[in-house]
Amino acid sequence: MFHIFQYQPLRLITQNSLSSMCLKLILSRPVAFAQIWKSWFSSHSLLGKKNIILMGPPGAGKTTTGRIVGQKLDCPVIDIDDDVLETTWNMSVSEKLRDVGYEEFIEEEGKALLKFSASGSVISLSGSNPMHAAGMQHIKRNGIVVYLDVPTTVIMSRLKSMDRIVGLSPGISLKDVLQFRKQFYKRWFDIRVLCGGDVEAEVVAEKVIDAVKRYQDSELETFISTRSSRSRKSTEEGSHKLYFSDVITQGLALDGGLFVPERGLPKFTAEEWQGLVEVTYVERAQAILERCIHPADIPASKLAEIVETAYGENFSCSKVAPVRHLAGNQFLLELFHGPTASFKDFALQLVPHLFAYCIPRSCNYLILVATSGDTGSAVLDGFSRLHDTDKQRIALVNFFPEDGVSSIQKSQMIGCQKENAWSVGVKSDFDFCQTAIKQIFTNSDFTGFLTVEYGTALAAANSINWARLLPQIVYHASAYLDLVHQGIISFGSPVDICIPTGNFGNMLAAFYAKMMGIPIRKCICASNENNVLTDFIRTGVYDLRGRKLISSSSPAVDILKSSNLERYLHLIANEDGQLVTQLFNQLENQGHFQLQKELLGKLQQDLVAGWCSDEDCLAAIHSVYSTTGYILDTHTAVAKVVADRLQDRTCPIIISSTAHYSKFAPAILRALRIAEINQNPLSQLHLLSSYSALPPIHWGLLETLKKTGNGDHHVCAADMSVLMSHIETLIQNHFM
């Protein structure tokens, strides 16, 4: 068997073994010696007995990178091709491939790997090692597998003159070989390192070391509440830290604040973003989410499985979130190709699976959701797609304003109910529903009673849950990369983004994408007549006094209290939790607050805002259809009107198309000047389909409405005790 033994560290320094030279260094230059010792200890504690295993396609730079990493860590370096395979076979790799052929070569290579062992080393695999399952299982047991993810076009340019690629043959192109191998690389890696085209090997080596450090230290990625004071943070440090798997289950902080990552979001370099230009939406999502979710919470292989499940067959468009040119410099980010026809599907096809993986098996969970329309059907659909074993321990109740959503939205929420997911109409507005859920979470007597009496904990799936925001960051980043891929812009050129905004989650996600390195210039908030956010961004005064919610044709943004604004203010206030607490307590108790001039200045550097009347919204739908044959939904039309007013046309603007127009058929038919509108939702959709417009009628929505019929749902009064009683009854019926 081929062995490389663990690197032997320096012996402990004692009076007997200490050389006179070392003693002189310690005595004469103690600071210098301390720095040398610290450097040595850091590198060797990083590896221990584990190996760093570099994996990737041929031409990824594994051998060169491995040598540099080994030098930096002062440990053995092993190249599988040169040091193991050719030594074992007593011939070159290319000769072996020529002698035995593709399939036998993989088998022989795997056998050699099975006889190999090492510890405390940097190992560079061959490009085809990951295709042998048993060999990879063997070597992975004592190592951290680092995937050097290099763009396919870069690999192809590097391998132009190389003829010993395993699997390459007449009729099979190099591109086909590289694409085929990706499935094996994805299966085995623990860490992905994105490598752009012109990145020096020295830089890649540093990335590898940093990535391994992150992998081994989950303590770096903790979460805090937006209402945590600095003194409380330092007191709590080391006592009870919260990680991703904690905040996805807890939802809302105990002090009423929202969770945010203590050290902020990861930054991607321009080269890393450019490395994602060529790949699919699913691959982009995996790469971005891996950097936002520590592998100690969800391993990369499991995360990849979840992402593929979420964005696979459930979306009707293979591009998942395509970008379509509308007119001039305006582009639409189509976020309605999921099963329930709104942008909420991006989070809510993913989050239920993240949640099911993270929660402890010893407890049942009831998810509480408040919706102004689109979240309801999306969250019901998402949690109903869990595995049967997970449905037995995870249930969901969706509260929505009984008379504050469109007829089709209500039909969807009724039709999406399943054995573990129910809808409850509340005789009030969305703000009441959202506030009620927050109060229930902070009612320790009630939540404690549910835990003790029924073994059931409460959790949230609204955009107040941190995990809801991450998939939204992905599609904003992906939209920019699509424009680069289409040749509309080059990477680094700015774009503006305009989003119909109610609860501020979608806008916050766009701002987070900007912080992570996407060149977004202006984030434009578009409101309807419930324009409290527009007023706030323009004046710094958030004032609910005397305001009443106005029902509009764009109900998903009929919101006066924007929950995710709290996260944004916490960020620009330099994480001053005391200030955030003061502002939102004042809003709760007095109905208003005002930002200091300095904070308002910061806010206005990031955000601009405008609003649109219902009349202007419907006029925009008619105008766009008349000139392009494309039908906007009512929320997208709000954003279109505001974009027209506020953009300066010096760069492209991406308008978030947050829902399919089919969901708001009565308003769309009015906009198209149809005089008589049948009240039956299914009839309305059939009438719209006769227009043969773009995009076509949403397939999932049509199927749901066909199944809905006269489905039942609970309706309750706007009373906290009534809501809590409903919750207890549902727990009894499902879990007992």
TrEMBL record:
Key words, A-Z: Amino-acid biosynthesis, Pyridoxal phosphate
Xref: CDD domains: SK, Thr-synth_2
Start and end residues of each Threonine synthase N-terminal domain: 234-311
One example GO MF annotation: pyridoxal phosphate binding
UniProt entry tagged with the keyword Amino-acid biosynthesis: yes
Stored InterPro entries: P-loop_NTPase, Ser/Thr_deHydtase_PyrdxlP-BS, Shikimate/glucono_kinase, Shikimate_kinase/TSH1, Thr_synth_N, Thr_synth_N_sf, Thr_synthase-like, TrpB-like_PALP_sf
Superkingdom of origin organism: Eukaryota
Entries under SUPFAM superfamilies matching the protein: P-loop containing nucleoside triphosphate hydrolases, Tryptophan synthase beta subunit-like PLP-dependent enzymes
Gene3D superfamilies from the UniProt entry: 3.40.50.1100, P-loop containing nucleotide triphosphate hydrolases, Threonine synthase, N-terminal domain
Cellular component, GO, one term: cytoplasm
Pathway(s) it belongs to: Amino-acid biosynthesis
A Gene Ontology biological process term: amino acid biosynthetic process
NCBIfam families: thrC
Protein family per UniProt: Belongs to the threonine synthase family.
Name under which the protein is recorded: THNS1 protein
Source organism (scientific name): Leiothrix lutea (Red-billed leiothrix)
Organism ancestry: Eukaryota, Metazoa, Chordata, Craniata, Vertebrata
UniProt gene name: Thnsl1
